[in-house]
Design brief:
It is built from eight helices and eight strands, in the order E-H-E-H-E-H-E-H-H-H-H-E-E-E-E-H. It is of the alpha/beta class and 273 residues long. Helix 3 crosses helix 7. It starts with 14 loop residues before the first strand and ends with a helix.
Amino acid sequence: MTSNYSGMTSDRYPVILVHGWNSHPGVWKKLIVRLEISGIPYRKFDHTGMQGSPLPEIAESLRNFLLVVRDENGWSGPVDIVCHSLGTCIVRYLLEVVDGTERKQTVRQLIGLGPPNTGSALAELFNDPKRGGKIIDKLTGVFVPMGFDPAADRLVQDVRPGSVVINNLIRAGLRPDITYRIIVTTNPKDVPGFFPWLEGKTWEMAEDGKYQATFNGDGVVAYRESVLPGISLDILSASLKGENNLPSPDQYCHINLPRNPLVIDRIMKYLTG
């Protein structure tokens, strides 16, 4: 491959990193070490200052960010984008809804870690008058912030199944000029230590519209929620601690996906392949 990027000493595509909800760019610390070793240029999109903003507004901010970093670095060709959780929905909204027709955003591949592509059952449960409070109490300080009010959180409302944002993504469809990669984790062996706050399971919405708990998820996002039409999932299964020198079970939960060495290996495989 020949580089299209002036000033670059590597033939690697630049990478944009987009964190998820109630998170921060620091989650990419371990991945960044690997990027730097491989000579891959990168930039982190930080939307922590937009708490309370709707998802389309953050997607517009990402568009402006990309314009600036492309101009500053002379990146005229495609970039790769790696996203965690709801960050994937932000990126997809920009690429598929905002830019779906004009396609001014040139992207080689989008790599999403545990994304709620079809909407989040957990976001829906947060708003449930009977069960929402109990789940929020369990996850406060772990996944949700202190004093969390789902009704006031625009991002949480935007990723509920059937929301305007999710419906817009479904209607827009995937872009044929972008390669999509989806990496998820699962707990098929009921491994102790895998997201113990929900007993190692993940809430999902079944086909009949009822909630059910499954081991086929990362504690926050069930992998059926990550599915995109025609795109195969990379499913990494949690193992017992120390088994075959694999990461400890907690490294497979949603919060730690960007830090899991096996997830990072898979990301690097796609970025350098």
